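>> received
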Amino acid sequence: MAIPLLQVDAFTDRPFHGNPAAVCLLDAPRDDAWMQAVAAEMNLAETAFVVPLGDVFGLRWFTPTIEVDLCGHATLATAHALWETGRLAPDRDALFDTRSGRLTASRREGLIELDFPSTPADAAPAFVTNLAEALGAEPAWAGRSIFDLMAVFGAAADVRALAPDMVLLAELPARGIIVTAPADDGVHDFVSRFFAPASGVPEDPVTGSAHCALAPYWADRLGRTRLLGYQASARGGTVRVEHAGTRVRLAGRAVTVFTAELLA
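>> returned
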């Protein structure tokens, strides 16, 4: 039986921008090896597999090489796909059971808003030297969240200019490396990039889950809970964030690029 498959660009309202995710709409669970093989075939940062479980949906995310515990852009893409295909009523929130607990997606103010756990980074000065060597520039501050290492720079131009050594980055003990700095465009509050070669993703275009660490950092530094971030990858994407204690709300748009059927 053919399985519906959509490719959705997340955290953008224009095709071929933001972060592309494949969304596989299942009627019943599939085994891990099959999902990993599909994700490798899609060869995107993440492929999402969603299955109805009564009033909620089971949701899992795979890179081309591993399953991950938390993914923002593929969750946003999945919610968009459920509403667009009529699998979820337009006035209903999307409730997902995941490896990171219950996640929610809602439609608010013309955006899709995700309710995610906050994953703040604690100072980790011991990593400054290793990060400087791998990134080719020394950060002003280094931290570590539950998933990632974070490197903070003084200027947005420093973040944009980075050309890291992916071999050295892959050796660092983290899912990925968040790099960030204050924005300089008068529109956004901060900029970021995200590298995860150890997870099969050299540079992720727009990383929702990284903003679960960026939101508390910049909220504390700037003294505001509602902020606008720009991920300065080649494709680029905007993420509205709100830090709310132990939770972070991430909001953005999404656009379907194509629909297909998976026959294997």
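>> The chain has a mean pLDDT of 97.
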